[in-house]
Design brief:
By secondary structure, the protein is an alpha/beta fold. The chain has a single domain, classed as TIM Barrel, CATH 3.20.20. It has twelve helices and eight strands. The strands form two sheets. A six-stranded parallel β-sheet has the order 3-4-5-6-7-8.
Amino acid sequence: MLTYRADHVGSLLRPASLLEARESWQAGRLPLEQLRAIENRSILDALELQRQAGIAVFSDGEFRRAHWGHGLLQSLQGVVSMPAPDEARGRWQGPTASLAAATHPTREYARARLTVAESFTRVEARFLKQHAPGPFKVTLPSPSMFHRLYHPVWTRPIYDSPESLVDDLVTIYLRELDELHRIGTPYIQLDSLRYGEIIEAAQQGRLDPPTAQRTLEHLVAVDNRLLARARAASVTRAVHFCRGNHRSAWVISGGYESIAEMLFGAVDTDRFLLEYDTERAGGFEPLRFVPHGKMVVLGLISTKSGALESIDDLCRRVDEASRYVALEYLAISPQCGFASTQLGNLLDQDQQRAKLALVAEVARKIWN
């Protein structure tokens, strides 16, 4: 397992040419092979951007996906797309919440047993294996995120509960992880909003403590089945705890304290990628529950704004975190991706470049 001091969550702002190409492909005006060629060129540029910035592990920017979970959704058979319920659009928070809500018009639901015709990350991983100038990561949304595919009327004849649907997805994921191993993927990352959702629901009284505990135990069990399969001597396994990231808006607030002891102690990962860019995430005190030897990647740099953080402030915050986790087990990154959805957050390419370079500069200053 490598340390990767200068990390990032994965997604990057799409260039205009790629956005235009995907729109043309979705409208039937561009063949898939031409879209793939434009994706390839865009990913090569993104790899060079990361190399120049000094990032330690490379991503394809999730450029082959319309949003962070779309690789799987594109491959799933048995789902249909329906208008999103109003409550789904109203979850976004922050000054740009209305902008975020306006661009989520649909939601997918399971109408048949879920299957995939082929691997949903093979193309990504093979291209990175061939072209990345260093170690690369492939990101996977935790299958627990797709409990939202369950509809109480349409899905119930196939799956009797959201948990049984997720169990089917776990089987699909286990095969996917085997494929990533065959390709030789050195870094596999699970992304999940669910942990943060439980934190917030429990803190706001929308979930009683026993229900929150049972739900967390199920989420951990699901992720641990995958993390156990992902384990290999040459593979780094990571879990990113997301708080929502779309058009510079967010979904979740609340510190880690209420679930830290159970969560940090139970999730079988090598790295925790934690959002710590604002006071919404609380303090570093919950890190005292991180077991010795696990890496904590501090997401101190915001992808929601182009304003550049102070190097001195970032170094000070890393020092504060080192009171709870030894400095040798810390790393730094942005708090989330720059474009969890293809429209991305409200900053430009130059600001993104500066943020990535800042991650690398702070890492060099502290650990080199």
